[in-house]
Write a structure and sequence with these properties.
By secondary structure, the chain is an alpha/beta fold. It is 44% helix and 18% strand. It has a 7-stranded mixed beta sheet, with helices on both faces. Strands 13-10-14 form a 3-stranded antiparallel beta sheet.
Length: 433
């Protein structure tokens, strides 16, 4: 059977890793946003709703031996692969539950400091989105963080007719879903060649992006019956009914000052907009955002300035593999390249190249002594580009498990290497042997 409740179920979702879903990252970002956050160095629990084959959970569980992790998915093959990987790597602090969200919301009695969900929100019917939020409302602890990724307007608006044709053609084809997706894509390319998209200049870019995607990924993303990009204001309103407050984005670029994160001609308009929902919508329009990675919190507690300084001061940062040791830098951003000036980044990179440093140490560097905001933005840009990362406080057990997981990734053809010191993973240029 190809569709289960309108969702693709005959093929496994590819093994993708998202650094923004890791607990240490989420805790650091909430702190950057000025809120008390769960301590990822203490024992905690994390649940991923729609965990797929479990790559994000495996990395987190390997790097946090004293925490507990739960993955929920209704595709039994996903969970079989995830359990096999956990057993092979000695990762014994993660469990995978075969259930839909409504069943899990009803049966679960666990409580979590973190709940994450990537992609699924945009693929499932409204009643399952409601069930997903029931899971969050019922099992997220006070102060807990909820990470939600979804397709959004206006960047995904032009994809609506393309997805509709892919889905419709799939219902009239036989064979596995990846093959259906490829045939549907071929039809779209034929339509484009006929000149039918001549008045839609964004279509060639969209079709090129679709053509580069793994067929299994294309099937999961675009063959679902209920695929739907949404307006961020609508999503935030729905989530707020579950007792959560929007903090910002788990994608740190979107939290930067508008002078860096939106095109120049829109900056004054956004600065003058006091209604948060309207300001977020204007940012989406300015960035032509096609997806969002939002961060919400249950019963948020704002940090005062002294608390913010103390939290930043305690964070330890280190360079990730292959990071440069001097500025200037060029950051690839959703609105185009952004230059990181030599005067800021050379002192910062040189200090980190000498070894890990706390936020307190970095704030004493000459560029930041009188401008703490510049340090916070510089660190987030380095995090975005996978050049630097907050460090985790874990021990030898994490290093051993991370090494075993990296070897399992290599054997499985997954180009990831786990960095236990930071409780994350980075892409491998060449899959190690």
């Amino acid at each position: 059977m190809t569709w289960t409740e309108g969702y693709i179920s005959d093929v496994t979702y590819p093994a993708f890793f998202y650094k923004e879903m890791q607990p240490g990252w989420l805790s650091a970002v909430a702190g950057f946003r000025g809120f008390v956050a769960p301590d990822a160095s203490a024992p905690f629990s994390l649940c991923e709703l729609g965990c797929g084959v479990g790559v994000n959970l495996l990395v987190a569980a390997a790097c946090h031996p004293d925490a507990h992790f739960v993955g929920v998915d209704f595709n039994a093959e996903h969970l079989s692969l995830a359990r096999e990987a956990a057993a092979a790597c000695g990762v014994d602090n993660v469990e995978f539950i075969h259930a839909d969200f409504a069943t899990f919301a009803h049966s679960n009695n666990r409580q979590f400091e973190f709940i994450t969900c990537h992609g699924v929100w945009s693929w499932i019917a409204e009643e399952y989105r409601t069930a997903l939020l029931d899971c969050v409302a019922g099992s997220l602890n006070a102060g807990g963080l909820f990470h939600l990724h979804y397709m959004c307007h206006p960047g995904s608006t032009d994809l609506v007719p393309l997805q509709h044709l892919l889905n419709l053609s799939a219902h009239h084809l036989s064979g596995p879903s990846p093959r259906k997706a490829q045939i549907g894509l071929k039809l779209l390319l034929q339509i484009a060649d006929s000149g039918m998209f001549a008045d839609k200049p964004a279509m060639p870019r969209h079709l090129a992006n679709l053509s580069r995607r793994d067929p299994a990924d294309l099937a999961h993303e675009f063959l679902a019956d209920h695929w739907e990009p949404q307006h961020s204001a609508d999503v935030h309103q729905l989530v707020s009914r579950s007792g959560l407050t929007f903090l910002g984005s788990a994608d740190v670029f979107n939290n930067l000052d508008v002078s860096l994160s939106v095109p120049g001609r829109m900056q004054a308009l956004i600065r003058g907009t006091t209604a948060p929902a309207l300001a977020e919508t204007l940012k989406d329009l300015a960035r032509d955002a096609h997806q969002r990675t939002d961060l919400f919190q249950k019963d948020p507690q704002p940090l005062d300035y002294e608390g913010f300084l103390a939290r930043l001061g305690r964070l330890q940062f280190r360079l990730l593999p292959d990071a440069p040791q001097n500025g200037p830098l060029t950051f690839a951003t959703p609105i185009g390249p952004l230059t990181g000036p030599d005067a800021i980044y050379t002192p910062l990179l040189q200090r980190l190249a000498a070894g890990p440093a706390s936020g307190a140490e970095l704030s004493a560097l000459p560029p930041f002594r009188d401008d703490l905001g510049a340090l916070v933005q510089a660190l987030q840009l380095l995090m975005m580009q996978q050049l630097a990362h907050p460090m985790a406080r874990n021990g030898p057990a994490a290093a051993d498990r991370a090494e075993r997981l990296s070897r399992w990734f290599a054997r499985s053809g997954i180009a990831l290497s786990v960095v236990p010191e930071c409780a994350t993973a980075v892409p491998c240029a060449v899959v190690p042997t």
